[in-house]
Specification:
- The chain is an alpha+beta fold.
- The chain contains nine helices and ten strands.
- Strands 4, 5, 6, 7, 8, 9 and 10 form a seven-stranded mixed sheet that branches. A three-stranded mixed sheet has the order 1-2-3, with helices on both faces.
- A hairpin with a 5-residue loop joins strand 5 and strand 6.
- The radius of gyration is 24 Å and the shape is globular.
Length: 299
């Protein structure tokens, strides 16, 4: 009887344990792991099928599983730094546990793995973009004239602009894209902002942080770039408008400039037919001097 009670308690406790699985999302990374004898899979398609079966089984039992992006190069570096044998399952487990706290992860929600993989890759790109932009912002240091932290001031400015952009946007779903090209690498950030039933704006915190950081970097470095937004609502045409980064502020794009940006092939320069049911327009007035250079580090 006591033995049965212990087994029951262990089953209950097992449901309380959250798990993480490190996923090899593409064929290249999968082949890199095959150099280890202890990694016994030899077909990426079958590997993904087995992972999905495991995830579904855990979900059916009420277990929560987080999926992390497993990078073979980062794994090799982790093993080298920690003195672990890379050709050991326990080392992969240690690395995966590390990913659960530091790497890009998403919770498994029952979707097919073919839908989960793009979401995981997007999360990895978003985190890498945020980390890169944050490093560049931190390197700007303090203003030689007033001593203010340039990166922090730019982030505050970008946050204020984003709030005003969302506050002045029409009701509905908003899709924002910010790109800057003057940094060592072109950076692109996307933010989805949906209006809930109470009229408030719902934002993904990680998306909002990355977006604001990229915008702040563009403002602080006065890099060429822009910000465009598409708004959608039932029963109305979609509206697309935007701004170019000008100094450490935003300058509204004309309706013609927005049309040209969306209806021109950037590689060939050829015209693209405009979408039906879309209005390319001038952005609303943000107020607060958004289209002029505000007081800041242009001493």
């Amino acid at each position: 009887m006591a033995h049965t009670d212990h087994q029951t308690m262990r089953r209950v406790l097992r449901r309380e344990i959250a798990g993480t699985i490190g996923l090899l999302t593409d064929e290249h990374d999968f082949r890199a792991m095959r150099r280890y004898r202890s990694f016994t899979f030899d077909d990426h398609k079958i590997y993904l099928e087995q992972v999905e079966a495991l995830l579904r089984t855990r979900a059916s039992r009420g277990s929560h599983t987080t999926i992390a992006l497993f990078d073979p190069q980062e794994y090799a570096e982790f093993c080298s730094d920690t003195g672990l044998d890379p050709d050991a399952p326990s080392s992969r487990t240690r690395f995966t546990a590390e990913l659960a706290t530091t790497g890009p992860t998403i919770p498994y929600d029952g979707r097919p793995l073919s839908d989960v993989v793009p979401a995981l890759v997007d999360e990895a790109v978003r985190q890498a973009t945020w980390e890169y932009a944050s490093i560049l912002l931190a390197r700007l240091g303090t203003c030689a004239t007033c001593g203010e932290d340039i990166g922090r001031a730019a982030f505050t400015r970008a946050s204020d602009l984003l709030v005003r952009i969302l506050d002045t946007a029409p009701p509905g779903t908003r899709h924002l894209v910010c790109s800057i090209t003057g940094t060592p690498e072109t950076l692109l950030s996307v933010l989805h902002a949906d209006e809930n039933d109470q009229g408030a704006t719902d934002l993904d915190e990680a998306e909002a942080l990355e977006f604001t950081t990229v915008l702040a970097l563009g403002l602080a470095t006065r890099s060429p770039g822009g910000l465009v937004m598409r708004t959608s609502a039932p029963g109305t045409t979609d509206r697309i408008y935007g701004w170019r980064l000008r100094g450490d502020g935003l300058e509204p794009l004309t309706a013609g400039e927005v049309f040209d940006a969306y209806c021109t092939d950037h590689e060939s320069g050829d015209l693209i037919s405009p979408e039906s049911g879309v209005d390319y327009c001038v952005p609303p007035d943000l107020g607060g001097g958004s289209d002029v250079t505000p007081p800041g580090h242009h001493h």
